[in-house]
Amino acid sequence: KLGVRESVADVARVLSRYVDVIMARVFAHHDIEELARYSRVPVINGLSDYNHPCQALADLFTIYEKRSELQGLKLAYVGDGSNNVATSLLFAASKVGMHMSVGAPVGYQPHPAVLRLAQEEAARQGSTITVTPDPVEAVRGADVIYTDVWTSMGQEEEAEIRRRIFPPYQVNSALLAQASPDVIVMHCLPAHRGEEITDEVMDGPHSVVFDQAENRLHAQKAVLVALLGKG
Ligand code: NVA
Questions:
Q1: Which end of the chain, N or C, is more open, meaning fewer C-beta atoms within 10 Å of its C-beta?
Q2: pTM of the model
Q3: Three-state DSSP state, 106
């Protein structure tokens, strides 16, 4: 486990002597910040409990691939609006001028500081970011419906209570019927089929989930090219 046998700072110092770039999937976000602070090579956040930027890059790429545009589209995120994936989507969508509505229960809505940053950026780009406890309102007119697990890393002991709170936010055919007829459905995976998304939707004609999974590879190759200056 990172930071147990050896400090995170020393891991960063040693790896910097071995490699050209570090990509780390960590648990606590401060570990990625600590790696970046002490590394002499670029550090990529591969996933933390705060955010998931590589996923969001791949997601924008996937939406662009399907729709040939980003600005002005509406992305509805349904589920735990306070988790790592939702946080990065808020930052990413606002940067490219996409509208985003988060349909999440009270208590699981985006952190106020994250929401404020995203709303300020969206205002600059001419889009809007809204939050509602009503999943139907969130997906109305949406071009993209996005969901993720109800229980994220580190929240395992809350799984039972979350399983009781989140069922109205399941992405199923009834919810899909409220969105645009050509809506695409996304999930960062791994999915808990039968919880946040049904088999019918995940394997259905609106799902782009596995193209999205493939695009993690391409987006991350692009990040490497950008960081290593070999474009
Ligand atoms: N929100 C999920 C994302 C997994 C890639 C989790 O933190 O478990």
A1: N
A2: 0.97
A3: coil
